[in-house]
Amino acid sequence: MAVVKPFKGIRPPKNLVEKVQSRPYDVLNSDEARAEAEGNEMSLYHIIKPEIDFPAGTGETDPRVYEKAAENFAKFRKNGWLVQDEKEQYYIYAQTMNGRTQYGLVVGAYVNDYLTGNIKKHELTRADKEEDRMKHVRVNNANIEPVFFAYPDDSVLDALVARYTAETPEYDYVAPGDGFRHRLWIIDSDEDIRTVTERFAGIPSLYIADGHHRSAAAALVGAEKARLNPKHDGSEEYNYFMAVCFPASQLTIIDYNRVVKDLNGMGAQEFLKALEKNFTVEKKGADIFKPAELHTFSLYLEGEWYKLTAKPGTYDDNDPIGVLDVTISSNLILDELLGIKDLRRDSRIDFVGGIRGLGELKRRVDSGEMKMALALYPVSMKQIMDIADSGSIMPPKTTWFEPKLRSGLIIHELD
Question: Around Cβ 388, how many Cβ atoms within 10 Å?
Answer without folding.
Answer: 23
